[in-house]
Amino acid sequence: MNQECSCDKCELKELFFHNVTSKEIMSLCGSRVEKNYDKGDCIIEQGTTINEFIYLKSGLVKLYVTNTDGKEQILSFAKPFDFVSLLSVFSQNTYSYSVMAIDESTTCNISIHDVKKLLQNNGPFAMGILEKMSKVSDAVINESLQIRKRNLRGRIAYVLLHFRNDIYNSDYYELPVSRKEIAEYIGMTTENVIRALTEFRKDGIIKIFGKAIEIVSYKKLVQISEHG
């Protein structure tokens, strides 16, 4: 479902288009729409043509690639105020990854043609785009490195802390993905993920209520994340 939206007081303007004039903002707003997605809806499909510059206004999404065998590898998770199209949007004509809503989500979509036109005419805006692209790429690479350098228990602890600190800001939250998806994200088997979560529960570090997690000992979880 698409919605009309106003650019006057949008956080997108404050966070990313602060180097853009009011006239340029209005030009961009002419092609701008909001799109609502239910949990499980595909926002970006790997291999499709890039036509829009996409910003996540609300919700939660996962970025992932699908290999030739049909197996998924989760690259990262994106939360509100993230630009979910930046990894491919200016480097090629098609997306090299997919984006799926893992919670009810809303995106702001702007014509890529209008954004590229603005890039050519506004140097400070172009530099801001490059800086943001670099930060997004660095974050995805660092996230992968942080996971890969840890053992199994450390990886599970890292993921639980990532959801706690970077997404929900709460010791109690519902896991937005399945055990299988966590396994894909950290490069382990589903059985290993289940076993580690069970060990954390038995050790009194977390409580498990179906898909919900309560972190009982934040300090211990940090220690495991850092030292395994």
From TrEMBL:
Coiled coil: none annotated. Signal peptide: none annotated. It comes from the Bacteria. It holds the Pfam family cNMP_binding. SUPFAM superfamilies: cAMP-binding domain-like, Winged helix' DNA-binding domain. Keywords: DNA-binding, Transcription, Transcription regulation. InterPro entries: cNMP-bd_dom, cNMP-bd_dom_sf, Env_Response_Regulators, HTH_CRP, RmlC-like_jellyroll, WH-like_DNA-bd_sf, WH_DNA-bd_sf. GO terms for cellular component: cytosol. GO terms for molecular function: DNA binding; DNA-binding transcription factor activity. The keyword Cytoplasm does not apply. Residues 16-136 form the Cyclic nucleotide-binding domain. Residues 150-219 form the HTH crp-type domain. PANTHER family: CRP FAMILY TRANSCRIPTIONAL REGULATORY PROTEIN (PTHR24567), LISTERIOLYSIN REGULATORY PROTEIN (PTHR24567:SF28). This is Crp/Fnr family transcriptional regulator. It comes from Plebeiibacterium sediminum. The lineage of its organism: Bacteria, Pseudomonadati, Bacteroidota, Bacteroidia, Marinilabiliales.
